[in-house]
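Usage

Read records sequentially. Each one opens with the input sequence:
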Amino acid sequence: MKGQTKFLACLVTIISIILLTHSEALSKTDHLVYFAGTDYELHVYKIFGKEPGKTLLIIGGIQGDEAGGYLTADLYADMTLKKGNLIVVPRANFLSIIKHKRAINNDMNRRFNYINSKDYYEDNVVEILKGLIQRSDFLLNLHEGSGFYSERYESDLVNPNRFGQSIIADTDVFRTSDGRVLNLAIIAKDVIRRVNVRITNKKHLFRFNNHRTFDKNTQHLEQRKSATYYALSTHNIPAFGIEASKEIKDLEQKIRYHSMVINSFMERLDIIPENPGIELKSPRLSYLVVSVNDKSYLVHNGEELKVRRSDRVKITDIVANYKRGLTVDVVGIGTSNDLNRAFVLESPLKAVVMKDGYKCAEVSLALIDVISTVNKESPSFKYLIVESNGLRQVLKDGEHFKTVRGDVIKLIDVVTNDHSPDELSVNLIGYVDNNVNNIGGQRRLIINTAKDLHSQNSNDKQGKSYTIEVSSGKKVVGTIYLDVEEPRMDYIVLRHNKGVKRWYTNGELIKISANEVLEIVDVKTNVNGNTGVKVNLHGDAKKNEKTITLGSIIKGSEFLSKNVTDYHLVITREGIVLGNAALQVIESLASAN
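and closes with the structure output:
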């Protein structure tokens, strides 16, 4: 397929998206999943900046044959923001993306004037999108349009009836019921001005396309059923359709154009990102996790897994260099996405892994009558699956697994040759569970590296290195090394008087006057995601100790009134002190100099 080849080829190229400033504080992202386990599973990413601001809703993939839209939206799901908020829906119509069709039952972008009857999955998804629109200040709906829009007729591909390379609005000026005036034409033309100065191919310049959807004689009456019309007419939200041209065959270029437009809207709305750039890579499968009778096996691209007719098989996880847009289709059974669907083989099958409907890997499921007839050798160790703070890693014999003390780890399972994993035992030397007889294995036990490890049994006797042994009977067939790093604070970020931010390293003195306020902005540690990290305010009296959260305000006047002179900000994790900074409260900073 030409489209598939072009897609895979263009993803090899790194796309540099020039964004704005980089900040030391990370924003918060809420990842919501609707209709989980269905072919139309909907993922929504709500990204909150460290500073309040406008909320921009970005919808991609509402029509599944427009790859430029959903692949561009996907880039913004991992963004962090210094200021403002994003709501990103990368794949609004996942099933149509898998099928490479504009629509399945109905065109989803023509269902916004319907009341949800639950007759079609499209209506259920639209109800979620309506709720997101209501919580937004602006809407961008990403599309690919035919030809090139022009105000006058130039050719069959360049004329007023084409959509490509345009920013579409339902009107130029909209007056709300409360008297506000939304000048959509000015907004769109300002964005177009910002974008067009960066486009070298003059045929690809963007233009403002006013559909005049509210007019009685509009040529685009069907747009009254669209997301942009609903947002503007129902919730008085400026809404725009962003149309890259389908005539541009370079998918990377279409993604670049969409990104230029989004970034320019963000600039205008003063939504400031933290991260400096994003890149696209060719989709690559690391492995599939396949459960056979509740035992996990790792299968790589091109490999074959042998099972018996009576075995209960389920593909439980796809591990690749992408987190979103992944499906697996067990050809001949199930549906378009058979992830986490149990089945029993009646004949050999193929499991095809897809990234947004494009094939990126394939594994075989073969039938055998009795496993022992094929596998007479002793069980051998291939991999150990380990989970740390919810993230899984796959380790080979002799590899090191790095963790920070206080991390919660789980020895998920072993992967062997055709033998059952039950024939191998897994033991972390130095871990003892008083409630479980773990001789023979510690699979799926939760191990807190701050509380459950005994340093006297570590390799260095200091609790920095432990051994995980995989054994067949009394014979050790695999060894993994657990390296435990001590948690530490690199610095704490404080904002003085709602203005200047300052960084303080471990042991530094923080001076605050009686009329000054400090905001706890961020803490930088070597702990992934700062899981379990707490900021504590300690005074020289027990009653003055408390845990404070990021964003909390410390007032110098309150300290003086309590007549407490010795304060510390102490950073801890699982009772371990990562660092601290002394806090000196004085009547004025001048008196301390």
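Summary fields computed downstream for this record:
- Residues 1-26, 371-375, 434-440, 589-593 have pLDDT under 50 and may be disordered.
- Residues 175 and 181 are 5 Å apart (CA to CA).
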